[in-house]
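#struct-pred
JK: can someone run the complex with 3,4-dihydroxyphenylalanine? inputs below
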Amino acid sequence: MRSMTLRGLFRRWCSGSSLRGSGGNIPDWIWERSRFVDKLHVRHGHPLCTIRGMIEAEMLAGLTKKGGGVHVETKLDPVVTSRQCFDELLVGQDHPSRSESDTYFLDGTKERVLRTHMTAHDTELLRKGARRFIISGDVYRRDAVDRSHYPIFHQMDGVNVFERANRKHVEDDLKETLSSMARNIFGKDANIRWVPGSFPFTSPSFEMEIFWRGEWLEVLGCGELQEQVLIHGGLVPTETENRGWAFGLGLERLAMVLFDIPDIRLFWSEDERFSSQFQDGVVQPFRPYSKYPPCYKDIAFWVPTRYHENHFFELVRGIAGDLVESVEEIDKFARGDRLSLCYRVVYRSMDRSLTNEEIDSLQDQVRAKSAAELGVTLR
Ligand code: DAH
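RT: done, structure tokens with the ligand placed:
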């Protein structure tokens, strides 16, 4: 083992890197953000914190009206076990969220992950005796690069378990509590509809949609907790006892709609012109301070047999950080058994103009690293 100074050890302990073993797939910048203390959803004045506070207050009011305490958590550690994140929630063995192309694993054993959803805490909190809770935090997924996808985003989940209630009662209470929350956030006359959903841990499952500015907007997922999930939570459900509901929603998606925020990267902006526009607890439309020109660069390559586009997306994000606005596949063709892909990378800063040299240098790095790390052959 390499020798390490005391200071080095201390720094390593503080950054939590001792948690990470070998064979994991978490880029350093993502890992570092997962260790932040001051996360966006608890940063006063930040739109995500305002949205979180509003929904939390509405849910608390709805739940406490019917008696009993409600447990609220905003600072649960995003490192959880695969058991919590998947197994105990009945996520199938072949579900894409279990694969390395979609999820961040701490090491090669795949035993620990950066949670892909807040639902990962449900069974643990039930085992600890909580029966009603509202939890929010940062979640992590490898995904597309565009205006509404970022590898770190924020969710709120809630659970309500009744000591005595039949299934009809659970479903009625679920719909009533969540509709009333949505009306208080989107307006008394909000047009709400329920559509069938599909989540492994709930049955029946629903999605709530709201008619907003001419289209149906998906607001949340929810349903009655599966008996087996309740059992994993240490409960003994019968036809009329220990049954409950759960819901989950994405905070960015709602904040983008309510604050008119056009690009998900803005939530991470350190620019005064962004942060100075918002006040704690107040929903007001974002005024774009300026729109800088985009710059397009195309890259084409032959892909190896084992290739997943999420690896390329992450590679670009790792090099360009928040200067990349989107990565889109624009062409694809096969010759013999070889496949060629062409992607268009759009570079644009939220805060300033980029120079040609800067963009060329980013694109050169993207080309070199793709060839070196993804096994592709540049064309
Ligand atoms: N965990 C789900 C997701 O990330 C959202 C969700 C759906 C949470 C239904 C729930 C639920 O608690 O009951 O997409």
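RT: quick notes.
The CA atoms of residues 357 and 363 lie 10 Å apart.
The mean pLDDT is 94.
JK: thanks, will look after standup
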